[in-house]
Design brief:
By secondary structure, the protein is of the alpha+beta class. The protein is 45% helix and 23% strand. It is built from 5 helices and 7 strands; from the N terminus they run αβαββαββααββ.
C-alpha cells in the first residue's frame, strides 16, 4: 500500500516536471521563431497536406486541458478542401496558439474552431480561421495590446493563468508571413473570438 501511494506521488511529480519542461520548450521555440521572423530568416514550407490531420494535431495538444475544465471542443472545418498547399507546421502552430489561449481562459462551456475559404483566385485560396470561446471576454482597453510581444490579457501580478504573452504576437507574424492578418473581437461577459487569415 505504501509503495503504491509513493508511486502515485512520483508519477504526479514526474507529470508536473514533464508539463513544465514542455512549457519551457514551447517558450524557447516561440522566442526563436520570433527572432527568425524579425531577422527575415523564417521560411515557410510549400507542400500539400491533409487539413483534417493538422486540425486533429492542434486539438490533440489542448484536449487534456479542455477535458480537465469540462470544456467541449468543437471543430467546424467541413467547408474546407480535403487537402491544402502551404506550411502545415506553421498553420498548426497558429491553431494551437489560439486554441490553447481559449482553453486556458475559458472556465466552462465550449471552444469552437471554425475555418472557411473567404477568397479564391486561380489556385490560391484565402483561409479564415476563428477560435471562439465562452470565456469571460476581454475589456476594450486590453484588446489593443494583446498581439504585442509579452502582453497578456491578465497583467496583474497575481495572475491565475500562466503564459508568456508570445503566442498571439507569433500568430500574427505567422499569419502575415502566410499573406494574411490576425485580430480579435470580444466583449466582457460574452466570450472572445480570435482569428487569422492565411
Amino acid at each position: 500500500m505504501l509503495f503504491r501511494s509513493r508511486d502515485a506521488l512520483q508519477r504526479e511529480r514526474l507529470g508536473k516536471i514533464d508539463g513544465a519542461a514542455r512549457h519551457l520548450l514551447q517558450v524557447i521555440n516561440d522566442i526563436l521563431d520570433l527572432s527568425k521572423i524579425e531577422a527575415g530568416r523564417m521560411t515557410l514550407e510549400d507542400i500539400e497536406f491533409p487539413v483534417d490531420q493538422v486540425v486533429a494535431r492542434a486539438f490533440e495538444m489542448v484536449s487534456s486541458e479542455a477535458a480537465a475544465s469540462g470544456l467541449e471542443l468543437i471543430a467546424d472545418t467541413d467547408h474546407l478542401p480535403t487537402w491544402l498547399r502551404g506550411d502545415p507546421t506553421r498553420l498548426a502552430q497558429a491553431l494551437i496558439n489560439l486554441l490553447s489561449n481559449a482553453v486556458k481562459f475559458t472556465p466552462h462551456g465550449w471552444v469552437r474552431l471554425r475555418a472557411r475559404i473567404v477568397a479564391e483566385e486561380r489556385h490560391r485560396l484565402q483561409l479564415r480561421v476563428e477560435v471562439q470561446d465562452t470565456g469571460p471576454g476581454i475589456a476594450l482597453q486590453r484588446q489593443a495590446t494583446l498581439f504585442t510581444v509579452f502582453e497578456q490579457g491578465d497583467s496583474s501580478t497575481t495572475r491565475r493563468h500562466g503564459g508568456t504573452g508570445l503566442g498571439l504576437a507569433l500568430t500574427r507574424h505567422l499569419a502575415q508571413l502566410m499573406g494574411g492578418e490576425a485580430g480579435m473581437h470580444s466583449q466582457p461577459g460574452q466570450g472572445s473570438t480570435f482569428w487569422f487569415t492565411a
